[in-house]
Amino acid sequence: MQNMQWSRRITYTLKENVYIFDEKELEKHSGPGVYVLKDKKDNILYIGQAENLSERIKKHIRGTSIEMKVNKAYKYIYNVDLYILANKKAKFNRYYIEIWLMNTHNPPFNSDYTPEKGNKQKMEEKRQRYFDKVKNHYISRNHWSGYEKLAYFERLPLEDIVLMISEGLFEDRENTYGVHIADKHKWYSTIKKSYIARLKAEYQYTEEEINQLAWEIGQNRTYPNLKALLPKKMSIAGDTQIKNNYGSGFELPVETERNRGQRRPKR
Asked: CA–CA separation, 150 vs 248, rounded Å?
């Protein structure tokens, strides 16, 4: 089955590693296509197709889809690959790509078009093999860094969360979730650009290198700061605050439209 021969030519664009924190990027892809859900170690969890990629993927991320409710699999979703179709009206093209990918990868949470063919016992065994494989890797949301959890709450790129904290754009508020971004719009319109320029001038790093360093900080559960990675001293204000509010013991709630709206700051 893996050596499938295509009966027609299908044109698509492959967009890899769209991280689930980055809602702006995800919402750009509201057209039809095929999606591949992956965990933090790039293990494929589930493959599906949708008329609206963005909306379908959000259901999986929030844990409201039937497929990802099983064993709370949604907690392991970290990034997504997208196969964006050039011909949006050719519905069957999505099915061709989806079936080909499922046959190729046999994801643990797919049942159709896989060797298990929907057999309940075989499916349970396949899922258990996945959990046995990753159990010592600590890759579920409960084991994310504080920065990752905050990026998930705020639906922003991880590197932006780290840089915002370093620039002091967070404030304490008396609410369930503790910390919120004070002004996202100002960050993207003016502050980020000037802050990156200061860092480039002071440390002789490119913007790409600064973003990469911020990304590395965000993924690290030991909560390092820029001082550990840059040649001159520069600490991130709020490290302790983030650790206390979003440390390894903090469990993310199941995403719903209601509680999602409550934890986003007013614009």
From this structure: 12
CA distances 66 to 62, 72, 75, 117, 221, Å, are 11, 10, 14, 17, 30
This prediction's pTM: 0.78
Q: Are 85 and 12 in contact (CB under 8 A)?
A: yes
d(CA 114, CA 242): 42
What residues in the chain have per-residue pLDDT under 50? 1-5, 172-179, 232-243, 245-267
Residue 225 confidence (pLDDT): 56
Rounded distance, CA 151 to CA 157, Å? 6
Between CA 154 and CA 101 the distance in angstroms is 32
According to CATH, the superfamily of the domain at 12-134 is: GIY-YIG endonuclease (3.40.1440.10)
Amino acid at site 103: N
For 80-123, the pLDDT digits (tens) are: 999 998 877 778 899 999 999 999 999 999 988 888 887 889 99
Query: Domain boundaries in the chain?
Result: 12-134, 144-263
Find, among 62, 28, 33, the residue nearest to 47 by Cα. 33
